[in-house]
Amino acid sequence: GPHMAQFATTVLPPIPANSFQLESDFRQLKSSPDMLYQYLKQIEPSLYPKLFQKNLDPDVFNQIVKILHDFYIEKEKPLLIFEILQRLSELKRFDMAVMFMSETEKKIARALFNHIDKSGLKDSSVEELKKRYGG
Questions:
Q1: Buried b / exposed e along 13-31 (16+ C-beta atoms within 10 A)
Q2: 76-113, pLDDT tens digit by residue?
Q3: Is residue 96 part of a domain?
């Protein structure tokens, strides 16, 4: 039907070169979370510092946390979720992004840490990180 045709027009953008590109891709894919998941999945967490060197957009930050919750818990390894949360926390403006989190967004972050805990990834760095996310 018409829905399928519309879906076909959304092409997965390539790995972004900078945060400007990333933010624009995120806006474009906002209405298809599944594409957003696939888009994020192709970006190595080790690229985050390079991608976000200017600053971490609170909107993008919250969308990433939501994708981790909605897709990664089910499809990816807990260690990868932890690595992404860790990388995000090392970025400039991270603490500010956390300050802007709504109650709902904080709940989502807590659910991610519960998932990581349950998976047996329990160590001091997980606890440290949880605190930084307002948990």
A1: beebeebeebeebbeebee
A2: 999 999 999 999 999 989 999 999 999 999 999 999 99
A3: yes
Q: Which mean pLDDT values do the consecutive 10-residue runs of the chain (135 residues) have?
A: 55 91 93 95 93 86 97 96 95 92 95 93 87 89
State the amino acid at position 52 in one-letter form: F
N residues, the chain? 135
Q: Which residues contact 43 (CB under 8 A, 6 or more apart)?
A: 15, 16, 51
112 inside domain: yes
Q: Is residue 79 part of a domain?
A: yes
- Give the chain's radius of gyration (CA, Å): 15
What is the helix (H) or strand (E) element at residue 103, kind and residue range? helix 103-118
